[in-house]
Design brief:
The chain is α+β, with helices and mostly antiparallel strands. The protein has helices at about 130-135, 150-155, 160-165, 175-180, 205-210, 285-315, 325-349, and strands spanning about 1-5, 15-20, 30, 35-40, 45-50, 65, 70, 80, 85-90, 105-110, 110-115, 140-145, 180-185, 190-200, 215-225, 230-240, 255-265, 270-275, 320. It folds into two domains: about 1-125, Rieske Iron-sulfur Protein, CATH 2.102.10.10; about 130-345, Naphthalene 1,2-dioxygenase Alpha Subunit, Chain A, domain 1 (Alpha-Beta Complex), CATH 3.90.380.10.
Length: about 350
């Protein structure tokens, strides 16, 4: 099987624009789908997303400051509310024609979800529910990556790279990684797989964070939700004490991650990720060590994904192979293509 590499971005969808805590220090400038966006939180606590361009003289609003009810341009002082309307025009009367483009933004579970497409289609019920952000202690990260957003999804939906790319952290030995038992399913909105490894040596991260001294059982479940999200749950137990069916067992090391690829353009994306260890505080040594290894591992992924993009850009018409291990990758690509067709059909109505 073969497929083309780069996927066009899908505008009518919810994407992560940032993490809630990022707005604590003032406005944040971010490039999303070839649009310059400013994220901010008013002094009164409401988050907003506007075009990062004042309608007066074109200066970036991200150079300004937050006010009680909006954001004030740092050049001539005009202020705009989260809906883009001018709420202060210093020295002059308010003019309703003075406005800035706004984007639907929903703050939930420490996510800042943005809708870059047609505002009328922004259905909040489509936002992914991830209650673990409210139940566990999570670390949050963000890496800009110079590649098409679907290369991250490909990376996450085929874990045979773990032993080669992440041998010193989360991966483990190559031989056992290559023969892991994998079950894969199509879902309504994407793809899902469960990966089971029984009685195998633990990788360095699991030894440091889970204290394992002998072999382990390891169950990982990944679910892709088109266009750009992957939810991960992993359970690690002493050999003979794990289960292929679930991680909801006593003891062991259990962690969850949320992965998301927000396109900055067709050849760049923002990798937003969160990681939490069940029962561990953010300050605990096991949580700190785990997240540091996650940061290191994802930098290793960044190296290969960007190298992949560079190679593909040199010959974009050349197809890529799909191996048997890539079943979840193929399902994910099919799901994002289906979502694109649905968007086209909606736009044509």
């Amino acid at each position: 099987m073969t497929n083309f590499a780069n996927e066009p971005v899908i505008e009518d969808a919810w994407y992560i624009a940032g993490w809630s805590h990022e707005l604590s220090d003032g406005p944040v400038a971010r490039r999303i789908m070839d649009e310059d966006v400013v994220l901010f939180r008013t002094v009164n606590g409401k988050a907003g997303a506007l075009e990062d361009r004042c309608c007066h003289r074109g200066v970036r609003l991200s150079l300004g400051e937050c006010t009680d009810a909006g954001i004030r341009c740092g050049y001539h002082g005009m202020a705009f509310g989260p809906s883009g309307e001018c709420i202060d025009n210093p020295g002059e009367k308010l003019n309703r024609s003075f406005c800035v483009r706004s984007f639907p933004l929903v703050e939930r579970q420490n996510f800042l979800w943005i809708w870059m497409g047609e505002p009328a289609n922004a259905d909040e019920d489509l936002i992914i529910d991830f209650p673990y952000h409210d139940q566990w202690s999570f670390h949050f990260g963000h890496y800009p990556i110079e590649a098409n957003f679907m290369f991250l999804i490909d990376n996450l939906m085929d874990l045979t790279h773990l032993g080669y790319v992440h041998g010193s952290t989360i991966g483990g030995d190559i031989e056992n990684q290559n023969v892991a038992e994998v079950e894969t399913w199509k879902t309504e909105k994407g793809a899902r797989f469960v990966r089971w490894m029984e009685d195998v040596p633990p990788p360095p991260t699991f030894v440091a964070s889970g204290g394992f001294q002998g072999n382990i059982d390891r169950r990982a479940e990944f679910e892709y939700i088109a266009p750009a999200s992957v939810m991960q749950s992993t359970g690690v137990f002493d050999a003979g004490k794990g289960s292929k069916e679930s991680i909801d067992l006593d003891g062991g090391l259990k962690f969850r991650l949320f992965h998301h690829a927000t396109p900055a353009s067709e050849s760049e994306f923002h990798y937003f990720f969160s990681a939490g260890v069940e029962g561990a505080t953010l300050e605990s040594p096991e949580s700190q060590k785990f997240f540091q290894d996650v940061l290191d591992a994802f930098l290793e992924d960044k190296l290969f994904i960007e190298a992949q993009q560079d190679a593909v850009a040199r010959n974009p018409s050349e197809r890529l192979l799909l191996r048997e291990h890539d079943r979840a990758v193929a399902y994910a690509r099919q799901a994002v293509a289906q979502l694109r067709r649905q968007n086209f059909a909606t736009a044509a109505e």
